[in-house]
Design a protein that fits this description.
Elements lengths: L1 H13 L7 E2 L4 H10 L4 E7 L5 E7 L2 E7 L5 E7 L7 H10 L4 E10 L2 E10 L2 E8 L4 E8 L3
Antiparallel strand pairs: 1-2, 2-3, 3-4, 4-5, 5-6, 6-7, 7-8, 8-9
């Protein structure tokens, strides 16, 4: 189950889910669960993903977020965009110490059964880094690729 949740998070972070998405059906179990967890959500858009997963893109309190459900209607977690300055201090400290002079491209908060994690994508010189950190600022995963110019 842990690998499944991590995989779903990575697919979301990679941003490829939109390319394969199509409108979701009307599953009352998922919709009821979503309404209960995210009362007041606006601009709600349901999108079916591969293997029966569904993504719900929405705005809550002025912040864009996404929620994920499996084919049984079980809530898997959320992902939301953040500003770098909204990160916990320990996470900001690790990023700024480890990646001095890097340009922050994207920051996302991931909440699931594993807890809260942060995905930071940044560029430094000719490399792009995709870094996952826990709430204590510890790097739990890091991918590096050379930027093609």
């Amino acid at each position: 189950m842990k690998n499944l949740i991590v995989t779903v998070s990575l697919v979301c972070i990679a941003g490829i889910t939109q390319a394969f998405a199509h409108p979701a059906g009307n599953d009352p179990v998922k919709k009821q669960e979503f309404a209960k967890k995210f009362a007041g959500a606006e601009n709600v858009k349901w999108i079916s993903l591969a293997d029966g997963y569904e993504k719900v893109a929405f705005t809550l309190g002025g912040t864009r977020a996404e929620a994920y459900f499996n084919s049984d209607g079980e809530f898997l977690g959320t992902v939301r965009n953040m500003l770098y300055t909204q990160l916990p201090l320990l996470v900001m400290q690790t990023v700024s110490n480890r990646f001095t002079d890097a340009t922050i491209i994207e920051v996302r908060e991931i909440n699931n059964s594993e807890g809260t994690n942060y995905r930071v994508i940044l560029e430094h010189k000719d490399k792009k880094y995709n870094v996952r950190l826990n709430t204590l600022g510890e790097i739990t995963e890091q991918q590096k690729e050379k930027i093609k110019k």
